Amino acid sequence: MREREHVLQLENITMQFGGVVAVNNLSLEVNKGEIVALIGPNGAGKTTAFNVITGVYQPTNGQALFHDKVYLRNHPQGKMKKGYKGENGLLYTSEYKLEGQKTKEEEKQRDHYVFSNHVLAPTPDHITKMGIARTFQNIRLWKSMTVFDNVIIAKHMRAKHNVFSSTFRISRKEEARMREETEALLREQGLWQHRDALATGLPYGLQRRLEIARALATEPKLLLLDEPAAGMNPQETLELADFIHEIRDKHHLTILLIEHHMDLVMNISDRIYVLDFGSLIAQGLPSEIQKNQHVIDAYLGVVEDE
Ligand SMILES: Nc1ncnc2c1ncn2[C@@H]1O[C@H](COP(=O)(O)OP(=O)(O)OP(=O)(O)O)[C@@H](O)[C@H]1O
């Protein structure tokens, strides 16, 4: 069997807001080409996990790796050092000690975690350039811009220079290339005939498509979808499954998604992680998760199709 290629790994991620532990000691991995779902009841911490992965929030503790390279890391500091309610609060500090006799494996593990209090806090912009893109639970488009501009600006964000310098200084050739790629994306998403419309003027379903086109414009390796089926009827939800497979294959993506529509989740996911009150309560294949009594009690037993 081929070795798994890690795209994203979260290790011991805790996100605490004041006294609220929104995500508690979360570890997970997403491998190349996989479609992985993160599910759980309202308030379980799913969106917070996405916000940590994309640099919107700096986690209180833990680290994340993209293609096996640590790109964000933190440990409880300042006031939080006392008020920390999560687990493994010393793991990423030089205060971490291994008790008792150390095996080679434990030593290796320790070296992997401890970087002498070294904190890494990349900005969302940096993370987009690295190759992680997302969509939002509540669609967030640049409302006063046209459909075309929403996508081409995202392309500029992917370019090596920043939006402002690139707007004024990129070569004509590069600009032409970006326009061509934008056209291709809009055609692919069935949005080309709407290119001059304002983003907010589009019907809801097309706004979702535009959000995905804009995410794809940044040429991601990993795409995070936050409730892509929200507001869709059963027929649209069914079509969404095919659509997600299509974009995964066409754009060579790895996908992590949050979703409450269990039919969709069970249909498209290679693996599923289940959160409840910020903590991971189960992980496995869809067939395993469906049968897991803990998950049924915490979530599946009460889930309502939207
Ligand atoms: N910025 C914040 N400040 C304070 N508390 C927050 C913040 N963001 C999230 N929380 C809290 O963290 C917990 C997890 O919220 P989160 O939105 O991540 O859950 P979720 O699983 O995405 O829920 P849903 O399915 O309803 O979207 C909740 O208790 C929420 O109130």
Automatic annotation (TrEMBL):
Record-linked Pfam families: ABC_tran (PF00005), BCA_ABC_TP_C (PF12399)
GO biological processes: D-alanine transmembrane transport; L-alanine transport; L-isoleucine import across plasma membrane; L-valine import across plasma membrane
Keyword line: ATP-binding, Nucleotide-binding, Transport
PROSITE patterns from the UniProt entry: ABC_TRANSPORTER_2
Family matches, as Gene3D superfamilies: P-loop containing nucleotide triphosphate hydrolases (3.40.50.300)
InterPro entries: AAA+_ATPase, ABC_AA/LPS_Transport, ABC_transporter-like_ATP-bd, BCA_ABC_TP_C, P-loop_NTPase
GO CC list: plasma membrane
Family matches, as CDD domains: ABC_Mj1267_LivG_branched
UniProt xrefs under SUPFAM superfamilies: P-loop containing nucleoside triphosphate hydrolases
GO molecular function: ATP binding; ATP hydrolysis activity; L-isoleucine transmembrane transporter activity; L-phenylalanine transmembrane transporter activity; L-valine transmembrane transporter activity
ABC transporter domain span: 8-302
SMART domains registered for this protein in UniProt: AAA
Listed name of the protein: ABC transporter ATP-binding protein
